[in-house]
Amino acid sequence: NNKNEIISLNKKAIDIFSLSSDYKDRDLRLLDIAPKTVKEMSTVNKTRIKSIFFEQIGSRIYKIEVAPLEFEKIKKEDNYPSVASILIDVTEEYNADKMKKDFVANASHELKSPITSILGYSQLISEGLIEDKIEKEAKRMSKIVFNLLRLSSIENNQLRTIGRINLEKGIKDLVESIRLQIEKKDLEVDIDIPTDMEIKMNEMDFQDLFLNLIDNAVKYNKEGGRISIKADKKENFVAIEDNGIGISKENLSRIFERFYRVDKARSRKDGGTGLGLSIAKYVASYYGYSLDVTSTLGVGTKFTCYFESKDNEIK
Q1: CA 227, CA 207: separation in Å to the nearest integer?
Q2: Span 20-70, pLDDT tens digits
Q3: Of 13, 134, 148, 163, which residue is least crowded by CB atoms under 10 Å?
Q4: What is the 3-class SS of 19-42, one letter each residue?
């Protein structure tokens, strides 16, 4: 009301503002966990102009509308002028919209970097010394675009041709495809997979899932390090473990985010796009698999893909 007193709160509002149901102090400042709401309610009461805004209260995001009350009978009471406020929980919608905006911003940044390099190198091309650098940046940009298209394809749930893939052969083929990177860092790769273990999956999805996990173990490993790839037919899982640099706790929860890199300098040097683990996660989700990760900084990282036993039975 005009004295900045709370006239009424419904049960849900009492929960949102963390008040007891028998709250005695009715001062508006009691809603101190929502300072913007408190300020807007006072302002609207003075100006009589409706206000719509967003505020985070606790761990949730609310769309809040504060409007002046104009009922005739209220004007005869001590509570006039007064305002009412409605809070709508829009946390999921807000986060989804933020992810889209972040994605566009990150994609623009990632594409801008190689384009800027190419333009800069092209000015010096007459010297005949930097063609290889242009090619490297062009390949990196091409890889970013390709991965973006793959993410789009996966997220749109486009139909894939499903076939039987021998897990041991498939993994060994992927390891051979990046043999140069493995040898360059003098890594030891140990593969322990039952020879008769098969999985029903699209070939490109198989590559997107496991090559990204293996590639991650190579990039973030130390010189002379070790990679262990082990599968268990009974427990329905494949685990890829390295003894590399590891991931800190604060970074571990974000590694599946698009364009997120634990070590940006190392990723760019190795031609990383920051999309590999996002693609792996989406592929796993598409098939109903769960992709877990454990890591200790300075010790190593382990990714484990558990297969669903119903629609994607391992035989």
Answers
A1: 18
A2: 877 767 888 888 899 999 999 999 988 899 999 999 998 899 999 999 987
A3: 163
A4: CCCCCCCCEHHHHCCCHHHHHHHH
Prediction pTM value: 0.52
**Among 159, 237, 248, residue whose Cα is nearest residue 204:** 159
CB neighbours of residue 99 within 10 Å? 12
Distance (Å, rounded) from C-alpha 191 to C-alpha 227?
A: 9
Q: Mean pLDDT over residues 228-254, rounded?
A: 90
Q: How far apart are the first and last CA of the chain?
A: 70
Question: pLDDT tens digits, residue range 137-151?
Answer: 666 666 666 656 665
CA distances 283 to 75, 81, 209, 247, Å, are: 61, 57, 6, 22
Q: Is 223 exposed, middle or buried (0-12, 13-18, 19+ CB in 10 A)?
A: exposed
Q: Confidence band (pLDDT; 50, 70, 90) for 95?
A: confident
Token pair for 81: 């002028």
Q: What share of the chain is helix, strand, coil (3-state, %, to 5)?
A: 45, 20, 35
**Structural tokens at position 129:** 């010394």
Report in angstroms the alpha-carbon separations of 25 from 9, 14, 31, 34, 109: 13, 13, 11, 16, 51
Distance CA 275, CA 136 (A): 18
β-strand partners of 177 = none
Distances (CA, A) of 116 to 144, 266, 273, 274: 15, 19, 16, 19
- Residue type for 148, please? L
Least confident of 19-28, 50-59, 95-104, 113-122: 113-122
